[in-house]
Amino acid sequence: MTTATPEFALLPQLQCETDTGIATIPLSEEVAFGSWQKTIPDAYWALGADELTARIRAARVTLGSRVVILGHHYQREDIIAFADERGDSFALAKYAAERPESEYIVFCGVHFMAEAADILAAPHQKVILPNMEAGCSMADMASDPDVRAAWRELGEHFGGTEDIIPVTYMNSAASLKAFCGENGGVVCTSSNAEKVLEWAFERGKRVFFFPDQHLGRNTGHAMGIPIEEMALWNWRGPSGRLGGLTPEALDRSRVILWQGHCSVHQRFSLTQIEAARERFPCVKIVVHPECRYDVVQAADANGSTAFIAKYVAEAPAGSVIGIGTEINLVSRLAKENPDKTVFCLDPVVCPCSTMYRVHPAYLAWVMESLVAGEVVNRIEVPAETKQHAKVALERMLALK
Ligand code: 13P
Ligand code: SF4
To answer: What is the pLDDT of residue 10?
Structure first.
């Protein structure tokens, strides 16, 4: 962790233990490999960081402009080093929609992001996800059958769904984006959620928002919607029970929030913010809107990963900034801004374990396979899903 001056040295309890533990080690030594994609050839298992870097670089040179590598801000350093474009999920989706030059898009991020790229890319482009097990636990909290069942129940309760606009966070399966496309809905990301909800309220009385309750609640609150008018739909309970809500709670709701969350961002707390403010009275706190409502309320600013990066870059020299988001990004921002004190609010926060699955061995494998003329780990959204999902994504991209 970088500190600007000795007087800003951090308390041990404010330092993130994982900050020094995110360097690349061979796949065979990665304890987490147990739950990762195993079909990678044996030859890649024992390679160390330097050899992997050299091999990816060589493949990169051979492939030239036939390949573009996209890297989400949460990717580890040894992956980001190869990203032609890095960004938040909105910027990377936009990139995929607007650059038909490269035949291959290697998406260093998670499954839903690669799906969105495939939906938006030109037909001749092939999208590749280095590790097929790089998913998102939040996206997994909203399954297609559960969302469709809830939608039916809402329709029965309200006597139709014409006045309800479904809005899915980008962090969701392609089939749910298609569901929104088919039902007059739209996709949002953390960088445009307010704009998207405004669009939705121009078309309906209520918004059905999934899968992240926190982004939905934080955005609704920022738009002036009272908390009592945001109902929480418990998808884990038995069906036919209105998601555990009373008919009255549903009737007064303007936003119906799916009970999903991000396990990384749920770790940030008010106590951590109070500790940081006590230690550094001048500290600025910036968090991702996937954090809980009380955390976002106590922060000085909140926004997407790109917003957080910009916030830190634009802060005056000597600033002290506590961040509530994933550690790879925080640690990179600390390194890139040596004139500021940048730290993670959670002293023991782990990286997003699914983003972390994109180990350089997988990137080397997919790149060398392309050099050999073989496409491995292609993400291909089925044609019908793609058609409807594209409608919902393009509605979002069209918003100014
Ligand atoms: P951004 O769109 O802000 O990059 O967020 C993606 C994400 O998964 C955050 O957890
Ligand atoms: Fe999903 Fe959370 Fe990881 Fe983002 S940080 S990809 S929401 S699990």
So the answer is: 40
DSSP character string of 232-264: EE-TTSPTTSGGG--HHHHHH-SEEEESB--TT
User: 8 in a domain, yes or no?
Assistant: no
For residue 22, tell me if it sits in a domain: no
Place 208 in a pLDDT band, splitting at 50, 70 and 90: very high
144 and 231 co-located in one domain: yes
Q: How many CB atoms lie within 10 A of CB 214?
A: 22
Query: Does 228 have pLDDT greater than 80?
Result: yes
The reply to whether ligand 1 has any atom less than 6 angstroms from the CB of 262 is yes
Q: Ligand 2, closest atom to CA 72?
A: 6
Report how many domains make up the chain. 3
Is the pLDDT assigned to residue 7 strictly greater than 80? no
Asked if residue 319 has its Cβ within 6 Å of ligand 1, the reply is: no
Range of the domain at 311: 265-344
Q: Regarding beta strands 126-128 and 378-379, do their DSSP bridges make them parallel or antiparallel, or are they unpaired?
A: antiparallel
On whether both 121 and 162 belong to a single domain, the answer is no
Question: Does residue 253 share a domain with residue 280?
Answer: no
Instruction: Tell me, in angstroms, the distance from the centre of ligand 2 to residue 137's CA.
Output: 7
Q: Say if CB 22 and CB 77 are below 8 A apart.
A: yes
